[in-house]
Specification:
By secondary structure, the chain is mostly helical. It has one domain: Arp2/3 complex 21 kDa subunit ARPC3. Helices cover about 80% and strands about 5% of the residues. It contains six helices and two strands, in the order αββααααα. The chain has helices at about 10-25, 45-60, 65-85, 90-110, 120-140, 150-185; strands at about 30-35, 40. The chain is globular.
């Protein structure tokens, strides 16, 4: 007999946060901040940095089904919003493909490492999905309209910032989890 469970409220918040972060990232995908020594940073990267870790939290909290729901929901919401705002088709396609490919790769790696610690799963899946997403999106969105130098700067800055924010989130969630365990002990 199969038991059907309803997702927790916390899982709904994680999914909503995931979709919102992707939406905010896509709304700012063509706005940049010049960073000394790092190059051009897409403002959307600040939001996108949390996306892979949020996806991993959804995976840990609910399994594969909520992850696939979150990815599909994010793609639909973002495609509709981009179309409604008159976003260029190349940006819509770049966003759709990079989210789909990188998030599914992230999910597959995380799933293969279920027996490992949460930090190992997140770091391992992010190690592949972050550069994959960044390179795929940047090339699809900006190749031919920006110089090679600018594209390389964007890729470099985005990867460094995504990893940095991801590491901060991992440490924060690890500390919060440890505090909860100590309170329960």
């Amino acid at each position: 007999m199969t038991t059907i469970t309803t997702p927790s409220k916390g899982l709904h918040f994680l999914i909503a946060g995931y979709v919102l972060c992707i939406l905010l990232a896509n709304l700012m995908l063509d706005q940049f901040i010049p960073l000394p020594a790092f190059g051009l940073l897409s403002i959307g990267t600040i939001f996108f940095a949390a996306i892979f870790t949020l996806r991993d939290r959804i995976h840990a909290a609910g399994g594969l089904r909520p992850v696939y729901v979150a990815i599909a929901l994010a793609i639909v919401v973002n495609a509709v919003a981009a179309y409604a705002l008159g976003t260029e088709l190349r940006f819509i396609a770049a966003s759709f493909l990079s989210i789909l490919v990188s998030e599914l790769v992230d999910t597959a790696i995380f799933q293969k490492l279920l027996h490992r610690s949460w930090a190992v799963k997140v770091l391992s899946s992010n190690a592949v999905s972050v550069p994959l997403d960044t390179v795929l999106f940047t090339l699809l969105a900006f190749y031919g309209i920006m110089s090679t130098s600018e594209i390389v700067q964007i890729i470099y800055a985005d990867i460094v910032v995504k990893y940095g924010i991801s590491m901060l989130l991992i440490v924060r969630w690890h500390l919060v989890g440890r505090e909860r365990q100590e309170r329960l002990a």
